[in-house]
Design a protein that fits this description.
The structure is a single chain. By secondary structure, this protein is mainly β. The chain has one domain: OB fold (Dihydrolipoamide Acetyltransferase, E2P) (Beta Barrel), CATH 2.40.50. It is 4% helix and 49% strand. The protein is built from one helix and seven strands.
Length: 148
């Protein structure tokens, strides 16, 4: 199995449809990265992933609005096509298994900082608790445990 994980911003509000008695939430996630080309010029590249989330409960759809940052995980699909200019292009699609809102607004919104709405089993996840960091190991203790 191939798994795709994407963190990015929604390009528009999601669309909920019913197909053959099953609900699907369609949304687009954009991931942008900046880099310098061979001449040292600053460039930006945006990759769009078209997402389809098949689910019985569509409560998460009210929070999947334009500009929200999400984490989505699922199986990828790629489709090649010829665009209106006659050039061959490709579309990256994902059948979503997990979607999670990241960041967001304050208030009762599940995407507020400190809250997490995670929908892989269509339930609201409890807010994440900070875990204590492990105690540092002194250099002389660590040297005794090295396998070489």
């Amino acid at each position: 199995m191939i798994k795709l994980q994407v963190i990015g911003n929604l390009g528009k509000d999601c669309i909920v449809k019913e197909i053959n008695g099953k609900n699907v939430i369609n949304f687009s996630v954009a991931h942008s990265e900046r880099y310098k080309d061979a001449q040292g010029n600053q460039k930006e590249r945006t990759t769009w992933v078209e997402c389809a989330y098949w689910t019985d409960r569509t409560t998460v759809s009210q929070y999947l609005t334009k500009g929200k940052t999400v984490y989505a995980e699922g199986t990828p699909e790629a489709d090649a096509y010829t665009n209106k200019d006659g050039n061959v292009s490709a579309t990256l699609r994902m059948r979503v298994q997990t979607v999670q809102l990241l960041g967001g607004n304050s208030g009762d919104n599940p995407s507020a900082p400190g809250n997490n709405y995670s929908s892989n089993t269509n339930t609201v996840a409890a807010p994440r608790q900070a875990t204590p960091a492990a105690a540092p190991i002194a250099m002389n203790e660590a040297a005794d445990d090295l396998p070489f």
